[in-house]
């Protein structure tokens, strides 16, 4: 089965690929970035009614640049100034430094009531902005806009992307998080699996049965730090609570998550591809067999190509104890409107253009998109394209037959995705750095959890 490719650098790159497909590899300079971060967006309307919208994003894709040019051509009185941070670096430390600089400068301007008209929120603490009334409620704008038909969008994604009952960031794309299971091996084990609402405790019990009755030694291939990052995202609204205007990170629950993960690895239920496999990409890690692989699914074509064996099935990821049934999704290209913008109407019109079919239809199944389009019509065009072609042709590889049954299963998974797994880069960084001492046996779960709580509370409430 396929090894997991989601290490930290992949997470960063996927987070940064927020507004479209392949990027410009950092070649786009920040056009007037300092002015926008300082909130200096004066003279945005000239004497002839020409409006300039400033749009700030961490990563500027070719798709976004194409969409902007198309929009400006259709609206000659509108100029959209794109600002992007350097999204690449010579090593991981430099990438982190670029992210930190972008987040810090964006926070400084937005929390001061300044900044750009449009903000890409993937890297930023949207919850914090919403609590301080710094973002426009897009739900209100959608309700008032009769030209927008909700049935044309994945409303399950939009409804479950709300903060405090309002939609403050419009996702252009989303991906799915699930488990790909070896259906043949699972069937031979005789262990019954109901993934409709299983918890991680249920998964642990099933894993023990599988290792006793089945042919594989391991149930899931992962690594502790990655798994913790995912489980924190899935538990975010249980871990972080708001009270009297102050956020608090639950150290007890977090300690429980760390211990739960460590116990599964210690008991041999999970295969650590780095420690046990001798390093990611090693021959041992590549060839190990397990019943499940964690999988991020971001396109129809990718899903079919990664259906690595002939008899695999997509399973819902286990849920935290207090979370209901349904699949998991992650948004990309979350665009918000700054409440300080004098051009909210024009900003909304541009967002609407981006999510409409005419703006997304050029993204066919062969483009390297960061996810499924939020526009259901664009998605259905991609689906029809695949089914009509019947095969997928990949360079230097045999043609892959399009499996309609697998596509139907994925379609049901998409419409059933109701749990958002949004991440904040700063919180992820804190957890990654501090949890190493627990997984290496140097500190207790409670000790590490307290340190994480202190640092995250300081960040959330600054």
From TrEMBL:
<keyword id="KW-0472">Membrane</keyword>
<keyword id="KW-0564">Palmitate</keyword>
<feature type="signal peptide">
    <location>
        <begin position="1"/>
        <end position="21"/>
    </location>
</feature>
<protein>
    <recommendedName>
        <fullName>ABC transporter substrate-binding protein</fullName>
    </recommendedName>
</protein>
<keyword id="KW-0732">Signal</keyword>
<dbReference type="Pfam" id="PF01547">
    <property type="entry name" value="SBP_bac_1"/>
</dbReference>
<dbReference type="InterPro" id="IPR006059">
    <property type="entry name" value="SBP"/>
</dbReference>
<dbReference type="InterPro" id="IPR050490">
    <property type="entry name" value="Bact_solute-bd_prot1"/>
</dbReference>
<keyword id="KW-0449">Lipoprotein</keyword>
<keyword id="KW-1003">Cell membrane</keyword>
């Amino acid at each position: 089965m396929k090894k997991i490719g989601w290490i930290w650098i992949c997470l960063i790159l996927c987070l940064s690929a927020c507004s479209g497909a392949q990027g410009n590899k950092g070649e786009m300079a920040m056009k007037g970035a300092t002015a926008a971060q300082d909130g200096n967006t004066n003279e945005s309307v000239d004497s002839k009614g020409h409006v300039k919208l400033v749009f700030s994003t961490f990563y500027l894709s070719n798709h976004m640049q194409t969409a902007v040019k198309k929009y400006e051509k259709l609206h000659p009185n509108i100029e959209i100034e794109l600002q992007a941070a350097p999204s690449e670096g010579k090593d991981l430390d430099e990438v982190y430094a670029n992210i930190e600089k972008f987040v810090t400068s964006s926070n400084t301007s937005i929390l001061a009531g300044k900044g750009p008209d449009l903000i890409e929120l993937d890297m930023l603490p949207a919850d914090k902005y919403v609590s301080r009334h710094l973002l426009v409620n897009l739900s209100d704008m959608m309700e008032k806009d009769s030209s927008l038909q909700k049935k044309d969008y994945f409303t399950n994604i939009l409804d479950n992307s709300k903060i405090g009952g309002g939609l403050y960031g419009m996702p252009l794309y989303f991906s799915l998080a699930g488990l790909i299971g070896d259906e043949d091996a699972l069937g031979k084990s005789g262990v019954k699996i109901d993934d409709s609402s299983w918890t991680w405790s249920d998964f642990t019990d099933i894993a023990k049965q599988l290792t006793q009755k089945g042919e594989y030694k391991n149930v899931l291939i992962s690594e502790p730090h990655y798994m913790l990052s995912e489980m924190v995202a899935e538990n975010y609204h249980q871990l972080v609570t708001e009270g009297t205007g102050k956020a608090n990170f639950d150290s007890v629950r977090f300690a429980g998550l760390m211990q739960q993960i460590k116990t599964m690895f210690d008991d041999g239920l999970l295969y650590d591809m780095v420690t046990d496999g001798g390093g990611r990409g090693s021959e041992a890690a590549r060839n190990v067999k397990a019943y499940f692989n964690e999988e991020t699914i971001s396109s129809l074509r990718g899903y079919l190509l990664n259906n690595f064996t002939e008899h695999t099935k997509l399973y819902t990821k286990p849920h935290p104890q207090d979370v209901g049934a349904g699949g998991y999704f992650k948004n990309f290209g979350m665009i918000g409107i700054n409440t300080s913008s004098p051009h909210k109407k024009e900003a909304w019109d541009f967002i609407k253009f981006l999510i409409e079919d005419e703006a997304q239809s050029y993204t066919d199944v062969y483009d390297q998109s960061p996810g499924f389009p939020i526009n259901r019509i664009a998605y259905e065009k991609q689906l029809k394209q695949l089914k009509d072609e019947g095969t997928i042709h990949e360079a230097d590889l045999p043609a892959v037959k399009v499996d309609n049954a697998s596509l139907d299963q994925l379609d049901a998974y998409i419409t059933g995705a109701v749990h958002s797994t949004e991440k904040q880069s700063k919180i992820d960084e804190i957890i990654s750095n501090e949890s190493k001492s627990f997984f290496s046996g140097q500190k207790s779960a409670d000790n590490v959890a307290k340190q994480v709580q202190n640092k995250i509370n300081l960040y959330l409430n600054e």
